[in-house]
Structure formats: structure tokens, C-alpha cells
Write a sequence for this structure.
């Protein structure tokens, strides 16, 4: 694990303290859980963005046969 320092607003700090008290978890564990949830949530969004950027990357003259040929050459 890597140590990281963050700044929280007073409201965030108070709410995090309250949640830690209710759940019995340490604040650091709650923060890690929140970061993990966020990263998991945006994973699909990032994939969608990458696919959107790749849209239209085949040239206008290239056909499905060209794609099949490329895929065949990638198979080992």
C-alpha cells in the first residue's frame, strides 16, 4: 500500500467520521472503498470512450473481408 494525504472539506470530514463510527471501519478503509467503487464505475465509461475514439478507424475502402484477413493473421 502507498500512503497518500488528501484534503477534505469540513462536511466531508464530519460525515466520514460519522460513517466510521456507525460502521466500525477506519476512515482510511472507507476512503479506499470509495475510491475502489469510483474506479470500478468509471472503468466501463473509459472503455466506452476508447471504443468511441476508435470508431471509424477503418478506411472507407476497407471491407469486412479486409477485417477478416487481419483477424486471421492475428490468430496464432
Amino acid at each position: 500500500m502507498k500512503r497518500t494525504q488528501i484534503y477534505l472539506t469540513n462536511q466531508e470530514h464530519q460525515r466520514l467520521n460519522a460513517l466510521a463510527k456507525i460502521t466500525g471501519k477506519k476512515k482510511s478503509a472507507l476512503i479506499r472503498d470509495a475510491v475502489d467503487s469510483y474506479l470500478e464505475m468509471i472503468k466501463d465509461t473509459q472503455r466506452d470512450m476508447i471504443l468511441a475514439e476508435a470508431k471509424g478507424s477503418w478506411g472507407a475502402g476497407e471491407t469486412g473481408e479486409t477485417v477478416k484477413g487481419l483477424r486471421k493473421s492475428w490468430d496464432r
User: Anything to note?
Assistant: The chain has a mean pLDDT of 84. Residues 25-51 form one domain. Residues 27-54 form the longest helix (28 residues). The helical segments are 10-23, 27-54, 64-74.
